[in-house]
């Protein structure tokens, strides 16, 4: 839509130049200019409404929407292009207004060559400028040229009024868009601030979780250390008990062997005695 408006603006400027290039305004050019100006006005209003709807839609989306940032960027870009187009159109209309006014000044000097700049400005700024020219026409010695100049001045005066109306509408559109931007900035800022706070809270939560995990790891490590110490103590106790009982068993076995040796020693002499007998 903005591309269409830009093309229309270029065409409007061309039609203004064509109109200024002729002594008497061409009716076909006049109708084309009026039709194109009206069409451009309608497209501008439609574009403004579209941007307003997009802004409202973006505000209604949840902050965590995945493509929200892309949507906002696209809408902001569209809004900026629209404002630039309005400014361009307004500048072109200002320039053409000045061209029409300069043309009217020249025609007034044809009617009244001795007119001062103040007198010319007063005549051009007055809605009844035709009466000023008609009065000057009666006093002019160049009746034919003055009559043609009067007709053109009246036509150009109407053109200037139409241009001024367009400029006023463009100014209103521009101001509406500026107010829309200001109205949207506050909620967007609040949403962004909320998103930042949520991010901070999440980061804080992650830090707490990490600390909890570290604490849990430390507790598990201490638990395993205690378990290992207990197992080691049990092993030591088991070894001590085992050695204690094994030592007693070894000591008891040695005593029996000594008794048997002593018995054998006692019996042996007795056998020898019997043999001697």
Task: Give an account of the 3D structure.
The chain has 277 residues and is an all-alpha fold. The protein has one domain (2-210): Up-down Bundle (Methane Monooxygenase Hydroxylase, Chain G, domain 1), CATH 1.20.58. It is built from 6 helices and no strands. The longest helix is centred in the last third of the chain and has 134 residues, at 143-276. It starts with a helix and ends with a helix.
Q: From the alpha-carbon coordinates, what is the Rg to the nearest angstrom?
A: 54 Å
Q: What oligomeric state do these chains adopt?
A: single chain
Helix content: over 70%
| SSE ordering | HHHHHH
CATH class value: Mainly Alpha
CATH topology: Methane Monooxygenase Hydroxylase, Chain G, domain 1
- Arithmetic mean pLDDT: 75
Beta-strand segment tally = 0
Q: Number of helical runs?
A: 6
CA-CA gap between termini: 150 Å
Question: What is the annotated CATH architecture?
Answer: Up-down Bundle
Instruction: Report the sheet-strand fraction.
Output: under 5%
- How many domains would you count in the coordinates? 1
Largest beta-sheet details? none
The best one-word shape is rod-shaped
Poorly predicted runs of 5 or more residues: 258-277
Class based on secondary structure composition and strand pairing: mainly alpha
Explain briefly what this protein structure is.
The chain is mostly helical. It has one domain (2-210): Methane Monooxygenase Hydroxylase, Chain G, domain 1 (Up-down Bundle). It has helices at residues 2-20, 27-60, 68-111, 117-125, 129-138, 143-276.
């Amino acid at each position: 839509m903005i591309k269409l408006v830009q093309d229309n603006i270029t065409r409007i400027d061309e039609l203004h130049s064509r109109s200024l290039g002729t002594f008497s305004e061409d009716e076909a050019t006049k109708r084309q200019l009026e039709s194109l100006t009206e069409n451009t006005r309608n497209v501008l209003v439609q574009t403004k409404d579209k941007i307003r709807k997009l802004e409202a839609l973006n505000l209604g989306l949840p902050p965590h929407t995945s493509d929200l940032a892309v949507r906002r960027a696209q809408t902001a870009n569209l809004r900026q292009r629209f404002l630039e187009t309005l400014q361009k159109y307004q500048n072109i209309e200002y320039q053409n207004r000045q061209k029409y006014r300069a043309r009217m000044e020249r025609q007034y000097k044809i009617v009244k060559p001795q007119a001062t700049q103040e007198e010319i400005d007063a005549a051009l700024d007055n809605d009844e400028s035709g009466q000023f020219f008609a009065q000057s026409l009666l006093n002019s010695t160049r009746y034919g040229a003055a009559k043609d100049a009067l007709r053109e001045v009246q036509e150009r005066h109407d053109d200037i009024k139409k241009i001024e109306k367009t400029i006023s509408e463009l100014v209103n559109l521009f101001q509406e868009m500026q107010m829309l931007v200001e109205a949207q900035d506050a909620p967007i800022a609040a949403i962004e601030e909320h998103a930042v706070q949520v991010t901070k809270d999440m980061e804080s939560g992650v830090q707490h979780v990490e600390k909890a995990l570290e604490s849990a790891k430390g507790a598990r490590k201490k638990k395993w250390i205690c378990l290992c110490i207990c197992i080691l103590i049990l092993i030591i106790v088991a070894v001590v008990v085992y050695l204690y009982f094994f030592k007693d068993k070894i000591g008891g076995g040695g005593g029996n062997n000594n008794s048997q040796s002593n018995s054998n020693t006692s019996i042996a002499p007795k056998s020898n005695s019997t043999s001697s007998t």
